[in-house]
Amino acid sequence: MRTREVAAGRRDERGLDVALAAEYAAVYAYGVIAARTTGGLRATTTAAYNAHRARRDRLRAMIVAAGGRPVEPEAAYELPVTPSTAAQAVELAVLVERGVTGAYLELAASPDTAVRTMAALAVQECVTRSYGLRPEIETFPGMPHGPGSAPPTGGATPGTSPGAPSGGSSGATPAVTPSATPSVTPAASP
Amino acid sequence: MRSVSRRVLLRGGALGVAVAATAGCATGKPAPPAAERAVPPDPETVLLGELIADKERVVALYASATSERLTPFRRRHEAHLAELRRRLPPAAATGSAGSSPATGPSATPSGASSPTGDAARPQGPSLRSLRELERRAAALRVRQVERASPPLAQLIASIGACEAAHALALPRSS
To answer: Are A94 and A134 in contact (CB under 8 A)?
Structure first.
């Protein structure tokens, strides 16, 4: 029993770290995006920057409150594109939101119900923010194997219907890991 | 449609057990052991049943809408419903879990009717009521993740995010 609790605690800690790392990357990316946009898009991305900063601070506080030590941000991050047009800015912002959505969806499986509800709310925030930037809706946001994708390679039940997320029966379906390869990665050390 | 709480259901179940026990006495047959009679329902299956019943009503509501612009919304709800049904244990899938009482965000015809638009379009839900329905569904998902298994919690969180986007995306006019 005790071993299970410790394992669950570690999983939770890891999930919080993953979400925090995703938020650091999002704050960095939105800092760049907001600086390179104008008008309404700048206002939108500045609001997103502030929202991710707030989530970052909340995650840090949760980790500290649980007796952990938050991971620190990287000095710099590599962006898949340095936006020079509004379209590129939107593209990058949507990628960022997808990455953070995946991180929070992993956290939605936390053994701590307070963490779960926070994560579920954060997933909704990311998805609605993304919709505000680009009006597209995924059927299963954050799930790694969305509509039309190949079945998952690990822990999945074959023969699922197209568009269904991975997994078997409710008791045996594995929790998913973040859906997106992080779009914003720490820059390599010189 | 009136909601029936789990407590009411459980009370009903207990009453049924009492009646069965009385009947057993009357016929002189020994009643089965208490453990066999009062098997509590699996909470995960109960939750899945609630989610499925809720989605079935939402799908029916969208199906009653006349605007083709709402078709993608209905299809996403149908995909949610299919995935939720797939996660039901086989025994529950053939039983009544899928038709359990409503505890969802009032996806009933009356809940969907618009305070202003019914006279003009009595045959379908108003966009305003659908937006409100999606918003309330998304809010409910945040609470439902608390009592789900980890994999189901993730599915519920994902579905809730889709519903939150729906609330934002539903057209302002038909």
So the answer is: yes
